[in-house]
Amino acid sequence: MGSGDCAHDGRGGVKTLFDRLWDDHVIVTRDDGAALLWVDRHYVHEGSHHGFRAISARGSAVAQPALTVGVADHYVPTRERQAIADPDIARMVATLGDNAAAHGIRLFGLDNPAQGIVHVVGPEQGLTLPGMLVVCGDSHTSTHGALGAYGFGIGATEVAHVLATQTIWQKKPARMRITFTGKAGPGVGAKDMALAWIARLGTDGARGHAVEYAGDAVRALGVAGRLTLCNLSIEGGARCGMVAPDQVTFDWLRGRPFAPADFDAACEGWAQLATGSDAVFDREVTIDMAEVAPIVTWGTSPEDALPISATLPDPAREADPARAARIAQALDYMGLMPGRPLESVMVDQVFIGSCTNARIEDLRAAAAVLAGRQARVPGMVSPGSSLVKAQAEAEGLDRIFIDAGLDWVGSGCSMCVGMNGDLVAPGKRCASSTNRNFRGRQGPGARTHLMSPAMVAAAAVMGHLADVRPLLEGRL
Amino acid sequence: MTGWTTHQGRAVALPLENVDTDQLIPARFMSAPRSAGYGGFLLHDLRRDGEALRPEFPLNQPQAQGASVLVARRNFGGGSSREAAVYALVDAGFRVVIAPSFGDIFSGNAVNNGLLPARVPEAEVERLLAACPTELVVDLEGLTIAGAGEEIGFSLDPVWRQKLINGWDDIDLTASHKAAIAAYAEDRRARAPWVWPKV
Lengths: 476, 199
Ligand code: SF4
What we know:
The complex is a heterodimer. By secondary structure, chain A is of the alpha/beta class. Chain A has 16 helices and 19 strands. Chain A folds into three domains: 36-169, Aconitase, domain 3; 175-290, Aconitase, Domain 2; 295-472, Aconitase, domain 3 (2-Layer Sandwich), CATH 3.30.499.10. In chain B, strand 2 (48-49) and strand 3 (52-53) form a beta hairpin. The radius of gyration of chain B is 19 Å and the shape is globular.
């Protein structure tokens, strides 16, 4: 790889993974520190319409249509997809198709058997590869860092800029390493690791930083877990999240439709990307896996996360009045009583889906809990991609979900975002494998509790927030 | 986008933390074309109980009408990358948001639309919140906010400061590097041919 043979970062230190990717993509650096970076992969979705309109208004063409990939996910319905009933949604999906056709962009549309959520489809197809710089008008583009890529979300003006130039202006973020030591206990996974660090550092805890995840517990994760971990980086304010590519990455990528023809030679280069052993980070955080239990959120921000065995916070016990007020507001919105055990919180419904936790491994983890059991509340399962859906059906997972009483639907952003017809009703409480428990995220007035897919399955079986570990006994 | 160096306007308080972009504009409004104006979607659900405006909500109060500076608590604009959150603020007449911290993507989007995300230490933000509504003068050259009987400084990335002052359009700026981009692309194709997928 270009600068992979040079181990130093120009500040006298040994290079980090992030430094290598940064240096490898710089075209020019201005005196004020802004760098023009090359974009290897630009994903667009229905929400990218503002960006397309902006380049049309200037009369610009798409600079590198081959490096631009369209995916229909945010607005697509998960049922009755062939004739979309809602005219606004139909128009959004059609506009993406029109823009892709007009500019000669590859499209994973509703008629494509590989359609799904952009951050599931890109890696699954091998369109995201180690060493790449990946952008998309979606904040969870941090997901792609799991393969050793530099992926970050951009706004509509930047989407237009990337379309027109295949480049983007950036200031170099600071470097931060989050190391997970030790071994995950049973029922503990990547979602719990992510919520653990966000709860500790806060939703702006990694602001301005490129985060590299390291340590034995990260190495032990499969690619699906790494994708979940990197996906949630943005919820802690990080510019991006990444994991150095290793044999796990290479084994996972081999044979993907867009993997390099000379795959072994490419792997040799990618293996050189890892952070040097003496590299220095601007900030280091270490988390001991012995302290990470299955986690759920209780409030309206991902930092409002606690182990399932905990009790709800009590504003009366908070010394800081601003924090007490925020807790009180969050509990009020969530319809919760201070000080009560989290396990006493009854749920109305469950959702398994989203770019965070709807890969085949996530569905298997939920199915392991649900097999032979009944859900006490209604819910839906929306696979991360149509290929994941087909795989799950080949493994019989769909039967487990359906027999438990859950709906098995098509792939898309679905109930993660409340813009495609899948909504949580006002005041209803949903145990959800998604990434944002913001007010109204799953629909106006919806109350969202974030957790791993296995924990969502546990909530479904129990009818309340519940520890998955007893339900896994004899099943792991 | 037109540049600006000073802005004078009425500041209103939004004394909340973590005002994420889902609050700034709920997703269901984002399919609307910008030409229709996004101002009416700003903080849509926080401002209302059902369809009725909540009279006690800061932006619904009479003194908030015509305000162009918003003062809020930490982590303003975190979450989704939706630039529509900035469109909603700008179309509602805001030119400046003052807070102790901002979501990174939001800040970049704001600057691309002439909206200043001014970072001010927490204690000073609390004083400003208490003084609102108040008339403020924001100066991009001196990085100062004057009003409420004092002058305080704010931080802003120097690159973003220049952009706001000059009203630069990045696509035009980038055009001057056309040759360097073409040379990079050629080199990239040689080093990593897989970046260009087979058709
Ligand atoms: S699943 Fe949710 S978080 Fe992921 S891309 Fe879709 S809307 Fe965004």
